[in-house]
Specification:
heterodimer; A: MetI-like fold; B: mainly alpha; MetI-like fold; two-stranded antiparallel ribbon; 13 helices; 2 strands; 72% helix; 1% strand
């Protein structure tokens, strides 16, 4: 009964996973040959370690991950705390929180690109109006700002989703500690710091790991928001793999870079599974 | 109860906070919707009041953009993906949930961890394979690739629903004279139907929103809506009012679907951890 699905799963995940591993040790320029070339040992990996573009993509991905993960969690937490009490308004709003998350990442990128356009973008105009000194900034034209807004598009989808996770966790918590804090006369801030936050800790750890994994894999918005630019300022690892493999058709080298990313993701996924499994038992 | 000025201030801060959230979350969607009904001149301004038009929708469905086939491609690929994935996943989930299998934990970890394989790793080897099989730019190729992330996800999700169903119900059916197959078909399946539908909707959304595979594999014939967005370029760069109209077509079905499964949304995406 499980054979068909497992075969399909093996065919679509295990096969490419193993095959890409072999590819990463081969020299294969797809533009010149339809079949993989000779094995070249660790050449592709050594090349990656000496490749400034690769290291650039690593740094970009790390920066993007740090900014998008921390902002998603902080804003998600704020949203959760504001909408935690059940009232009709909050319930409706909670339902609608799914929307930005459900929008396809490709469309997310285009949506923000439109709003940030220096000539007619609504967000650009609003920022110009509120902070006149920033009027001349071309948001997607500068290296730092482009990366920042790339992170914002990601936060836009994920913060509401993370808020929903937090709200679910808060709802299932025992009310006793909160009541006790109230009886003891703790302020809202103190209650948050000494009661809510410690109780949310395990779920925050879990969400951080999950978000980190997804942030490292970011791709779609890079294409539709910035195209990796300006220059290579928003070229994430995933985008660099794509460029190497499907623009320059250097499949062997692309596989090697992809595998370097897989190693990192593997450990994160292991850590995530460990925390999730521990919660379940 | 007497309100101190501190309480009032706190309420005001909370109110402003909520307003900012609403703005941050919904304004981009709202703006995209507005733009979809603007004529070009208005789209390139920040006007809120304007004469609405449906021209943009007509525009993207006619030459040279021809979104009709793209909608069809997206629909066919997404539907075929779930038509294959959901029955397979249901069987597997049932077996994993009900029978003591050797090496079950290894299997479970494998299924879960295949969720974390970056899609670009999947597509690298498949690209060469599809090329030699002449499957590049076909819906078949997209369905195969989509299965790579949909299948494990569906197994995991449906398994959660079966786990939650007490085995006693099935045992009772057997006592009443049902054979195993009848039990499965008449008792278990109807009971886990909500779970199966939820998983199907999820997989549909994921396939519908899929971008990387379609970008790499398709060129002309099998292009999906997501990649079609990239084609909305004109003399002056991106044609934003057309982009907004296309965006609306992409968003609406997903919004409707995500509302229907909102209760299970979190559970699904954190793989059961957000319970």
């Amino acid at each position: 009964m499980i054979a068909p699905a497992l075969l399909a799963l093996a065919g679509t995940t295990l096969y490419p996973f193993v095959y890409a591993f072999f590819l990463s040790f081969q020299n294969w320029k797809l533009s010149r040959s339809p079949v993989p070339g000779p094995f070249v040992g660790f050449d592709n990996y050594i090349r990656a370690l000496n490749d400034v573009h690769f290291w650039n993509s690593v740094v970009v991905t790390i920066k993007f991950t740090i900014v998008s993960v921390s902002l998603s969690i902080i804003i998600g937490l704020v949203i959760a705390l504001l909408l935690q009490k059940s009232s009709r308004f909050n319930t409706v709003l909670r339902t609608l929180l799914i929307f930005p998350f459900a929008i396809s990442p490709a469309l997310k990128g285009f949506t923000w690109r439109f709003m940030l356009n220096p000539y007619f973008g609504i967000l650009d105009s609003i920022i110009d109006f509120l902070f006149p000194p920033l009027a001349d900034v071309v948001w997607l034209g500068g290296a730092g700002t482009a990366l920042f807004w790339l992170a914002v598009t990601e936060v836009w989808g994920w913060a509401p989703f993370i808020a929903l996770v937090f709200i679910g966790a808060l709802d299932s918590m025992s009310q006793d500690p909160f009541d006790a804090a109230k009886v003891d006369g703790a302020s809202a801030l103190k209650t948050f710091r000494y009661v809510t936050l410690p109780m949310l800790r395990p779920i925050i750890v879990m969400v951080t790991l999950l978000k980190t994994i997804f942030s490292i894999k970011v791709f779609d918005q890079v294409v539709t928001l910035t195209g990796g630019g300006p220059g290579a300022a928003t070229e994430t690892i995933n985008y660099y793999v794509y460029k190497t493999g499907f623009k320059f058709f250097d499949m062997g080298y692309a596989s090697a870079i992809a595998y370097l990313m897989v190693v990192v993701l593997f450990f994160l996924a292991l850590l995530y599974l460990k925390t999730v499994m521990k919660e379940e038992v | 109860m007497i309100y101190s000025w501190k309480d009032i201030l706190w309420e005001v801060v909370k109110g402003i906070g909520k307003a900012l959230i609403v703005l941050f979350i919904f304004f981009p969607i709202f703006w995209l919707c507005l733009t979809a009904f603007k004529v070009a001149r208005d789209a390139y301004s920040t006007k809120i009041i304007f004469q609405p038009t449906f021209d943009n929708f007509i525009h993207i469905f006619s030459a040279p953009y021809n979104f009709g086939p793209l909608v069809l491609n997206s629909l066919v690929v997404s539907c075929l993906t779930i038509a294959i994935a959901i029955p397979l996943a249901t069987m597997t989930a049932y077996a994993l949930s009900r029978y003591p299998l050797k090496g079950k934990n290894v299997l479970l970890v494998w299924i879960l961890s295949s969720q974390f394989v970056p899609p670009v790793v999947v597509v690298l080897p498949f690209y060469g394979l599809f090329r030699s099989l002449q499957l590049l730019d076909t819906r078949t190729a997209l369905v195969i690739l989509n299965l790579s992330f949909v299948l494990s996800f569906a197994i995991w999700m449906i398994k959660g629903f079966i786990d939650a169903l007490p085995a006693e119900i099935e045992e009772a059916a057997v006592v009443d004279g049902c054979n195993q197959f009848q039990t499965l078909l008449r008792v278990t399946l109807p009971l886990i139907m909500p779970g199966i539908i939820t998983a199907a909707v999820f997989c549909f959304i994921q396939s519908w929103n899929e971008f990387l595979f379609a970008l790499i594999i398709t060129e002309k014939h099998a292009t999906t809506l997501q990649v079609g967005l990239m084609s909305l370029f004109g003399d002056r760069g991106i044609i934003w009012e057309a982009m907004a109209a296309a965006g609306l077509i992409i968003m609406i079905p997903i919004f409707v679907l995500s509302i229907t499964i909102r209760k299970h949304f979190i559970q699904g995406l954190t793989m059961g951890a957000g319970k």
